[in-house]
């Protein structure tokens, strides 16, 4: 798919040697080659919308979402004070509003791709009920096969009745708008923002969380940090995504509840998973963890073959770039980073500590053990962590296997 080529090239360009070695050892290229790469076509998109989508936000021919034909996903966000360029004591709030646009009911015919995934997982050979499992795969596959709908905009309504136009979406049918908002909102407050009309957003309202310039913020990875994903195994990723019940890492919900009660932070969940998984991950996070903004990768719409690459290629550069954005929004807050050893969290967090002195106050890295694919790499070797955290004081970063090891460390952060 032409629209995905820039993402593919960028991922490959930023792929680290460690990522390349781990992907090759685990057989990622072979599995990716067996998955469908083009499970949708731009020919399914109206010609004019396809052409004018190149203009992105400046597309004067964009149309409002048609409730009979199209739907949107409203992604949660975090509002921050515009601290730069103003002399006001309490400058106004603003936030990034992200919306994804789709053709309604366009992802229903997935039987052929379901069978391919089932065969890749060798369903039925492990005592599974293939029919039931294929039904689960079909449901979770729909966000990957929905036809994207670029050149659309949507209007939303705030609780006070104010309305705001968002969009239009560009080539990948995702729009991003920086929008100011009024009102006297306290740190940690939440607003619900609804689409007009509400039924064009089947996954519900957008939640806007408010974060004052000072306080704590947690930036947390998702996969294998707080949710079992098996990111070192291509088959493990596919199974945990399309078949298994989403499962939290043991002890992490309790740890996050402790962090929430002691530090009252704002929350960002930063993952290299593609945006296709937003409607899969959001209910999981709301069930087990404090609510916050989920930042995912604009990487593989209508392209199942790019799904595994999104999670495993160029993740260090991607996460660092998104943390740059969080720093732009909240440069004076105290940051607690949580990640794991399967991907590039140590390197990304170490780079952020060095880039923004005094911003990152603590880094917790879950050392993933007992996984065969990890034993074939140097990802848990001391030298890896010493290099990733070069010039980062030992008191800032910690490795852990059991979340209970971190309670005292969290308690000590209150004094900072």
Q: Could you write a compact summary of the structure shown?
A:
By secondary structure, the protein is an alpha/beta fold. 34% of the residues lie in helices and 22% in strands.
Summary tags:
single chain, 416 residues, alpha/beta, 6-stranded parallel β-sheet, 15 helices, 22% strand, globular
Please describe what this structure looks like.
The protein is an alpha/beta fold and 416 residues long. The chain contains 15 helices and 15 strands. Strands 1, 2, 3, 4, 5, 6, 7, 8 and 9 form a nine-stranded mixed sheet that branches. It has a six-stranded parallel sheet with strand order 12-11-10-13-14-15. The longest helix has 16 residues, at 130-145. The chain starts with a helix and ends with a helix.
H/E element sequence: HHHHEEEEHHEEEEEEHHEHEHHEHEHHEH
Q: How many helices does DSSP assign?
A: 15
Number of strands: 15
- Give average pLDDT, whole number: 89
What is the beta-strand fraction? 15-25%
Tell me the span between the first and last alpha carbons.
Answer: 49 Å
Helical content stands at 25-40%
Structural class: alpha/beta
Spatial extent as radius of gyration: 21 Å
The major pleated sheet works out as: 9 strands, mixed
Low-confidence stretches: 1-5
Gross geometry = globular
